[in-house]
Amino acid sequence: MIKTNLSDKIINLINSKLVLFFLISITSIYFYLNIKESINLSPYAFNELFINYQAGFIRRGLLGEIFWNLNTFLEIKPILFFSYLFLLLYLMQIYFFHKIFEKYKQSTFIYLLIFLSPALILFSIYEINMFFIKDIFIKLTILFHGLVIINNIEKKKNYSDYIKKLKFIIIPILFLVILVHEYQVLFLSIHVLLSLSFMSNREKSLQILSIYLLLIIPILLVLFFIGDQNQFDILNKVLQKFEVDLHPQLNGGFYKALGGFYKWHFYYFGYKDFIQLLSSLFLSIGVFFLIFHFFIREKILKFHNKYQKNYVYFFAPTFFCFILAIDHGRNISLLAIHLVVFYSILITDLKKLSIIKNKINKNFLLSSFLIIFLIFYIFMWKLDQMAGFGGAAQTNTIFQSSIFAELIKLTKFLYTYIDLNILDLPEIRL
Predict the structure, then answer these.
(1) DSSP characters for 78-102?
(2) CA separation for the pair 20, 25 (Å, rounded)
(3) Could you tell me if 128 and 34 are in contact, meaning their C-beta atoms sit under 8 angstroms apart?
């Protein structure tokens, strides 16, 4: 029997309970304080939530229509409804991450890299403007799908069991999410990849693809009902009761997005911006790509079929998001989450992972380098909304403190909140 030393116990604590407690606590408190004090919330993102079907069917209108109908009967305050809804969604995201990646608990480096990465769970904390962005629906959908596949593999459930879940759970969710935000369409190929991941013959693959054809309906709906000026004028009048004014950018489709892409990347061009954008891509996606491909090379992760081996092709459609939206931080975060979820469903040889871990621990130089890199990765950079791409008269930088800076902000928010609402605290003189 191998004795567990004190350092191992500390590491195990850090790996699981402490990290999860930190994520849940900072997510709940930080978001609550920001919502309560209305600090740094994007009016564009918040107002978009109100788009509904009161002026006819229109893209992105499902969530707003649900709120409109609930408000008709219950008179719910919009800030409270949307705040608690999104907070619940972010807490679900933490739960799904925990369930999917708990197999990596034995590797402190991988576990902390995933859970404290500025590009994954913590992205929406570091960038509070992202709080009301509907991307969380897209992220939860891929996380849930990944969890379903992992459970099917681990519990050795048959093919028909997965098909039932695909037909009656996953496809309906994807159908609804497309109506919440058409961005989901760009990431459908990765869902197809996940579905094909444990297929072994051509007939089953064709059956899977035929099921996904059902999603042509919502795709056509969002393509043909983009929204015109008349609809947005009606909606703005309807939404006056909530003091909401929809952004003009929401009225338009591909050509407006293309114009914005050109203006942002060439008219407001700056070399520093591109360097930071490339750095954001590497730290958010490149790091995970290199690490997990090392695992693939060492047979720690194993491809099951040809679809998994050629997974890069399934990610190709997602790169259109860099044309349709100029806030590249959110694009990169979406890509990063879909990528790590794909890696999570690959069959993992935990014994080989343990052997590699022990070899690294015995190599002083390598283990020291990884610790230093982990400290830098967690504390010394952040994925901001624009991924460092400054644009017009903006100065963004990704190389700044992340957790430390946010903890300082959180402390200030807590102090102010307690001082104003609970008890008088001593005045701080600087």
Answers:
(1) HHHHHHHHHHHHHHHHHHHHHHHHG
(2) 8
(3) yes
